[in-house]
Amino acid sequence: MNTELPPFSRRRWLRYAAAGAVAALSPATWPLLRAAAPPSRDACATDGDFTRPLPVPGADGMYGRLAVGTQPLALRATATASGFAFEATAAGGSYVNPTLVVAAGTTVEIALSNALPEPTVVHWHGLAMDTRNDGNGESLVPPGGRFQYEFTVRNRAGLYWYHPHPHGATAGQVYRGLFGLIEVEDDDERALRRALDLAPGTTEIPLILQDRRPGDADRYAPAPEDELLGWYGCLPHVNGTLRPHLDVGARMYRLRVLNAANARTFRLAVRRDNGTPLPFTLIGTDGGLLERGIRCNEVFVSPAERVDLLVDFAGIAKGGFAVLETRRFDPMQAVPMVPAREPAAEPDAHGHGRSAPVGSVADGAPLDLLQFRIRDSATSGSRLPAQLSRLAPVPASAEDPRPLRLGFAKGRWRINDRVYDASATPVVVARDATETWLLRNYHASAPHAIHLHGYQFRVLERETSPDWLVPLAVDGRGRLATDLGAKDTVLVWPGESVRIAIDFHHPFPGSQVYLVHCHNLEHEDAGMMLRVRVG
Ligand code: C2O
Ligand code: CU
Ligand code: CU
């Protein structure tokens, strides 16, 4: 089914906001926003151009695969000509934002040195970690300083990532390019690669999605509207390259996708050259492989989420192509309409709405991300194993769910009416408890990608989802295909409630402090984050 949605809701949100719902948010800025110069479309209008090859991580260089665990790693955060990056020299190679490859169960030692002109710290997103190693931003590494991490990788195989977490400055550092991938490997992972004849760098390829604005990576300067809604660009980058192409064989490929965007959610689909969808198989989520693959035409991937996809190009003739795209959606569908003050602007052919800030297109705008060019006509013989892995049973809790209300008040996005306070711990969980959390997003809100540090959780149910989302549910509990795996980040749409189950067991001595926050990085930096103590 093809649900074409009304385009472009930023204006609707702004109207809603201007109508008084968020009157506390420096009202003086609204007239300014309306008076802003029209976006420079030229810098954004590069659709249809897939001239640059996709950089595929190799044995060194940008995103190069670096095995860790055998010896200590030195990671240096540094300013480069094109932004910020982590650099490492190891095993005779030099790496920029290395992909850390590690076997489950390994203990790693990583020395971070900070050669940036500002404080930073590294957080290992998705990994089970004690507070000292979590890099939650409550202690920082000053310019010229060092920090020694040492931890055991306790997670299942999967694609995780590392990124800075200095509170209030996370968004700018990530946008400038300071992050990398972590691939945890185990026996399930190796069995899958064998069964499907997959090899990292040729038929298994990470895709790091990030939308950017024209100009230097250093040009991160959010206006009040960006701080409210998030920093959106108009130029979709994959693996650091604008709208690239990848030559592929007519066979099965594994695409391991990370949404590294500050704020944008991708509604990922693959389209054949004749415009019809090319279905794919979802085999994994944030915390690793699903038990079984699920056929999909599309998946939503919000900031920090990962999806593991198998795409088979065997049905496309040599010389043909396919395009990875993000499809149109309306992120504010549940926001009640308020009387318009002025006619809504229609987005142009590139989806560039006139009220989006210069150099950006709104969340939900359709964009082409990556072109696959089919270079041979071999056919795929490999079969997906029926069982990919086993997930721990969903933890059951006897208690009432703990509510986390997501909303906006007094000029700030809030969780349970609070903003982040390093000296307050509003969520206290008993040692070894399992809990159900009820993430409730208000109608007059925005999509929030809620992330919990230190744990993988399971999605139990979605309720009061936006009407257009309901047809994508794969079961009677309103869950999406991506809700069936282990998760550390879950998108909650306006008006929606999402029930999650968390097993808070941890092996560390004493109590540990984690964070729960929105991974829209502008929301996070503005304080949409709470401390969680696990006894
Ligand atoms: Cu991806 Cu608190 O982080
Ligand atoms: Cu995290
Ligand atoms: Cu948010």
CATH class of the largest domain: Mainly Beta
The H-level CATH homologous superfamily of the largest domain, spelled out, is: Cupredoxins -  blue copper proteins
What is the residue-averaged pLDDT?
A: 89
Number of strands: 33
* Strand adjacency order, main sheet: 14-13-12-16-21-18-19
What is the number of helices? 7
Which of globular, elongated, flat, extended, rod-shaped describes the shape? globular
| Residue windows where pLDDT falls under 50 for at least 5 positions | 1-9, 14-39, 336-354
Termini separation: 48 Å
Task: Give the domain tally.
Answer: 3
Main sheet summary: 7 strands, mixed
CATH fold label of the largest domain: Immunoglobulin-like
Bound ligands: CU-O-CU linkage, copper (II) ion
Query: What integer value in Å does the Rg equal?
Result: 22 Å
Per CATH, which architecture of the largest domain? Sandwich
What is the helix fraction of residues, given as a range? under 10%
Q: What percent strand?
A: 35-45%
The helix-and-strand class reads: mainly beta
Key terms:
binds CU-O-CU linkage, binds copper (II) ion, 3 domains, seven-stranded mixed β-sheet, Immunoglobulin-like, 9% helix, 535 residues, 7 helices
Plain-language structure description:
The protein has seven helices and 33 strands. The chain has helices at 10-21, 29-35, 131-134, 170-175, 187-196, 224-229, 521-525, and strands at 61-62, 65-67, 73-80, 83-90, 93-96, 99-103, 107-115, 122-125, 146-152, 158-164, 180-185, 204-212, 235-238, 241-242, 245-248, 252-259, 266-272, 280-285, 288-296, 299-301, 306-312, 321-326, 367-374, 402-409, 412-415, 427-429, 434-441, 448-452, 458-463, 489-492, 497-503, 512-518, 529-534. The chain has a seven-stranded mixed β-sheet with strand order 14-13-12-16-21-18-19, with helices on one face. Strand 24 and strand 25 (412-415) form a beta hairpin. The chain is globular and about 60 Å long. 50% of the residues are buried. Mean pLDDT is 89; it is low at 1-9, 14-39 and 336-354. Residues 123, 125, 163, 165, 304, 451, 453, 515, 517, 519 line the site of CU-O-CU linkage.
